[in-house]
């Protein structure tokens, strides 16, 4: 699985050029770092609806059980969060040591930062989505 930013409407002339696999693999650690630096959680910009307790199907069944999700977020708020995470990981050994591949995570966050800057300029909304 990977995490990538989606935009509404689509960005013009910009695409997310990272795999997003490390962002998916490390999202719990990124959330913990964000909380430690008083930033919104990384995952708070994605679909964070609770999974029903009695759910035991696969991902496609979950989409059907939860129904459509049409929430979008401010790219400026997402940009602040991404910049705060990049700075914290780059500047604080305590944070970078929590990640398996801190330099690669910073690279994926930096690519997301580039896309979010374009989203702010173009006036589009964003959210984090998952891909297999």
Describe the fold and architecture:
- The protein is mainly alpha-helical.
- It has one domain.
- The chain is built from six helices and two strands.
- Helix 4 (75-91) runs antiparallel to helix 6.
- The chain is globular and about 40 Å long.
- The mean pLDDT is 92.
What attributes characterize this protein structure?
132 residues, mainly alpha, two-stranded antiparallel sheet, globular
Question: Short description, anyone?
Answer:
The chain is mainly alpha-helical.
Major sheet: order of its strands?
1-2
Q: What is the rounded distance between the termini?
A: 4 Å
* Series of H and E elements: EHHHHHHE
* Radius of gyration from CA coordinates: 15 Å
Regions with little confidence, pLDDT below 50 for 5+ residues: none
Total DSSP E strands: 2
Helix content range of the residues, please? 40-55%
Largest pleated sheet: 2 strands, antiparallel
The number of domains: 1
Please indicate the percent range of residues in DSSP E strands (runs of 2 or more).
5-15%
Mean pLDDT: 92
Number of helices: 6
General shape: globular
Structural class: mainly alpha
């Amino acid at each position: 699985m990977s995490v990538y930013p989606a935009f509404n409407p689509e960005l013009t002339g910009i695409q997310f050029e990272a795999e997003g696999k490390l962002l998916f693999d490390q999202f719990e650690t990124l959330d913990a770092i964000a909380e430690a630096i008083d930033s919104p959680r990384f995952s708070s910009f994605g679909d964070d609806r609770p999974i029903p307790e009695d759910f035991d199907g696969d991902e496609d069944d979950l989409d059907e059980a939860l129904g459509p999700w049409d929430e979008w977020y401010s790219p400026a708020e997402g940009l602040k969060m991404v910049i705060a995470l990049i700075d914290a990981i780059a500047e604080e050994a305590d944070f970078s040591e929590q990640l398996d591949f801190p330099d690669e995570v910073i690279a994926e966050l930096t690519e997301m930062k580039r896309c979010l800057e374009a989203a702010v300029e173009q006036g589009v909304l964003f959210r984090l989505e998952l891909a297999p």
